[in-house]
């Protein structure tokens, strides 16, 4: 049997990227979304990756979600993973002001520098709302930042899983609503997403001597 002749296993493949300071809960959010579990995770080394199949907006979708390390020493490595992402999730911790100020100091700049999709959808996520008594960043501040930078916005908790599904659903619905992001490259053909793991160096860096 030639499996390639059967109907595609998904309508679209979307590449999503998670960025933000170390400790804000990117990996926890991803685990909460893909496995419905929460555990105390170690900081990510480099980049991690998970796949989830979902039905959203009447479409069968394969989400390839890249979870980057927030620690600065991995920044050079993680920068290459912005390439081709249709959606970027910027996470901060509502109980740590520095993780919020670094959104404009670091993360929005990283997107400008490395994202290759002009119309890429950005989602701002304020995580750890279960720690309401420790909150230092108000919801209003999150809303204002999102408005200024043209992002979607949601607050959630990877721990209690409140709004975790909604995070990814909102992002994906907006991608589905953006025709330029549904063009070539995201169609449901069986392609090896692991090929994207090591982007080819561009001409300026690949010359040898
Ligand atoms: N209370 C609470 N703790 C959380 C939540 N999300 C994550 N944490 C905790 O925050 C710590 C950091 O979580 P991670 O998911 O490893 O953070 P990260 O953003 O992936 O960090 P790096 O991989 O270093 O970039 C862990 O101890 C988590 O258990 C949350 O929603 N509520
Ligand atoms: Mg992590």
UniProtKB/TrEMBL annotation:
GO terms for cellular component: plasma membrane. It is found in: Cell membrane. One of its GO terms (biological process) is protein transport. It is a lipid-anchor. GO terms for molecular function: GTP binding; GTPase activity. Keywords: Cell membrane, GTP-binding, Lipoprotein, Membrane, Nucleotide-binding, Prenylation, Protein transport, Transport. InterPro entries: P-loop_NTPase, Rab, Small_GTP-bd, Small_GTPase. Its main location: membrane. It comes from the Eukaryota. Pfam families: Ras. Belongs to the small GTPase superfamily. Rab family. Intracellular vesicle trafficking and protein transport. This is Ras-related protein RABC1-like. It comes from Populus euphratica (Euphrates poplar).
């Amino acid at each position: 049997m030639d499996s390639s002749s059967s109907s595609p296993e998904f309508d679209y493949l979307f590449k999503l990227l998670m960025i933000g300071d170390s400790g804000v809960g990117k990996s926890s959010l991803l685990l909460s979304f893909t496995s419905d579990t929460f555990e105390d995770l170690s900081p990510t080394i480099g980049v991690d990756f998970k796949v989830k199949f979902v039905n959203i907006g009447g479409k069968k979708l394969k989400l390839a979600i890249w979870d980057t390390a927030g620690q600065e020493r991995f920044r050079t490595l993680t920068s290459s993973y912005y390439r081709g992402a249709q959606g970027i999730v910027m996470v901060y911790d509502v109980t740590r002001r520095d993780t919020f100020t670094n959104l404009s100091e670091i993360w929005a700049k990283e997107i400008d520098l490395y994202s290759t999709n002009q119309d890429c959808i950005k989602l701002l996520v304020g995580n750890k709302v279960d720690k309401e008594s420790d909150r230092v960043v108000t919801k209003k501040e999150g809303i204002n930042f999102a408005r200024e930078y043209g992002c979607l916005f949601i607050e959630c908790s990877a721990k209690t899983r409140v709004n975790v599904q909604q995070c990814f659903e909102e992002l994906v619905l907006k991608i589905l609503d953006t025709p330029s992001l549904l063009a070539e490259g995201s169609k449901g053909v069986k392609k090896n997403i692991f090929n994207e793991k090591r982007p080819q160096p561009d001409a300026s860096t690949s010359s040898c001597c």
